[in-house]
Specification:
Blueprint: E1 2-8, E2 11-17, H1 22-37
Antiparallel strand pairs: 1-2
Length: 39
């Protein structure tokens, strides 16, 4: 699994691709969760 985060203005978009990989999932959570909590 891979992920990409883009930011434009006050909008963050997370693109996820591929099969779920638990090692990548933990790293992705560290990036994605603060974005969700910031709302």
């Amino acid at each position: 699994m891979s992920y990409k985060v883009t930011e434009e203005g006050n909008i963050s978009t997370v693109f996820l691709d591929g099969e779920i990989d638990m090692e990548v999932t933990d790293k992705a959570k560290e990036v994605i969760m603060p974005l969700i909590e910031a709302k």
